[in-house]
Design goal:
Layout (H helix, E strand, L loop, with lengths): L1 H11 L3 H11 L9 H28 L20 H7 L3 H4 L3 E5 L6 H14 L4 E5 H14 L2 H10 L2 E5 L9 H13 L4 E6 L6 H5 L2 H12 L2 E5 L5 H14 L2
Parallel strand pairs: 1-4, 1-5, 2-3, 3-4
């Protein structure tokens, strides 16, 4: 009866991990052979692991990453100019602590978004908040937020993310109010958070894609001067994998 009351209190205090571990202890016939300190240590360790796992799941859910990618699963064998030492260095997440950016460029299908999401996954595992969004969706969300009065809330959400992934950057020319919206997003994050840019548009063409020279200068200065660059090359991995699948399927 006393144990059940203890369990109820643990759950009421939201110490679910500790409660689950305590329940497991009660089912172990030789648990009394352990000292009080050992049993307490087991409860604390179990609850710590439970809390960290719950936090990671929350960070990944809020990030809304396009790809379920991990640093450990990145393919370095495909000839696309990927520097393994750079990726491993970035996986330490020191670039986030220093509010630095990452720019991933390359042709369609070489794995830009996957690598960006893998780095974001690593960031979540280190406890940093992440937000993924495609550039067209970013401008669409901002336009809607201006109309329905939620603009301050949306901009605050974007600014507070320690890592912001902007995918398909400059995939189409940026027009009108979108230029100012982009500058506002980048300006709000200056020195406070890190941004990952993923795009098939070469950096030398960004100025033209943004359009307005003054805004382009301001945006690029804030994005590029402290950025790690990953420039991918080669043919589409989707095409390559599809070719391999067909060969295996038809025995060729």
């Amino acid at each position: 009866m006393l144990n059940e009351q203890t369990l109820e209190k643990l759950y009421a205090m939201r110490l679910n991990g500790m409660a689950d571990a305590f329940r497991e202890q009660m089912l172990q016939p030789d648990i009394n052979e352990l000292s009080f300190e050992e049993r307490l240590g087991f409860l604390v360790d179990h609850h710590w692991s439970w809390r960290e796992d719950r936090r990671l799941k929350t960070l990944l859910r809020n990030a809304r990453l396009k790809d379920n990618a991990c640093i450990e699963d990145i393919d370095y064998k495909s000839p696309r100019g990927l520097d393994k030492s750079l990726i491993l260095s970035l996986s330490s997440c020191d670039w986030i602590k220093n509010a630095q950016n990452i720019i991933v460029t390359g042709p369609t299908g070489v794995g830009k978004t996957y690598i960006a999401c893998a780095l974001a996954n690593s960031s979540c595992r280190k406890g940093f908040s992440v937000l993924y969004i495609r550039t067209p969706r970013l401008f669409q969300d901002i336009s809607i937020a201006k109309a329905d009065g939620s603009y301050p809330k949306l901009m605050n959400k974007i600014a507070k993310a320690k890592v912001l992934i902007v995918d398909n950057f400059c995939i189409t020319p940026i027009k009108g109010a979108e230029r100012k919206d982009l500058l506002e997003v980048i300006e709000d994050r200056q020195g406070l958070g890190s941004t990952i840019i993923s795009t098939q548009i070469p950096m030398e063409n960004w100025f033209e894609a943004i359009g307005d020279p003054t805004i382009a200068d301001a945006v690029l200065d804030r994005l590029i001067h402290n950025a790690h660059r990953i420039n991918l090359k080669g043919e589409s991995m989707r095409k390559r994998l599809s070719s391999l699948t067909n060969k295996n399927k038809f025995g060729k």
